[in-house]
Amino acid sequence: MSNSTLSIERIKPGRGKATPNRSLERGIAVLRAFRAGSSMLGNSEIAERTGLSRSTVSRLTQSLIETGMLEYIPQFRAYRLAVPVLSMAHAMRDSSQVLKVAAPMMVEVAMRHKINVGLAAPDGDEMVYLESFRYNRRQSLRTVVSGQRIPMALTSLGRAYLATLAPEAFSATLLALAEKHQGRGWRSLRREIEAAVLSVREMGYCVASWQPQVMAMATPLQIGGYGVHVLNVSVSTQEDAEAVEAALAEPLMELAAAIQARMRRLESEMSGGS
Fold this sequence. Notes:
It holds the Pfam family HTH_IclR. The chain is α+β, with helices and mostly antiparallel strands and 274 residues long.
């Protein structure tokens, strides 16, 4: 099941709410089919990724071309995202007070402790980096491109987010993840997720290593009006999880507390000035 299909299925009309617009949902599913590494897609590929019929995809892509969201490349018989999509992404980043507050603090912690620091938010069964500062030995920072996706089930970022879900939502998300990871050691992976969730609830953070010789720790940030964000720190190391935890837990949790405290002050200032 694709991420786009998952997103559509989770949108349910609530009591007192208008019935969702299926055409709009399907149009958004088409846009979501485009990812890094998939800059151009034809109708067949879009249909496969969204679970929509080719005839439906054909109608939707035509509408998206007419509204300026997609461009058609005749020589490849394929589509690509158009300029307005980038403009909307920039508007999203510019409107996020969380990013404005967090970014300078993240840079300072990355440089002081010589570690990588990232901030992400959930989308379907993946986490999306909003910002990431990668420390290197030349005393400078390399920024991972915002919008980069990583798997929810495998990463500290994703597992820390899962720890914030209510029981019903957690169970539903695990079912979706089980389908995605079916046949790839799901039982073992589920145990790791459950252990990470317990760690977040008891310690405030979890540890994971899904890339060779990279250990990461993450903690969720629940900030009113902005939904759940997840903060992480990571290092390239051959040390075990306990050693990394001993070194990074304090910087991570202090940074999380500082970001949340600053956001609370800003909210209080805005409320007092209204």
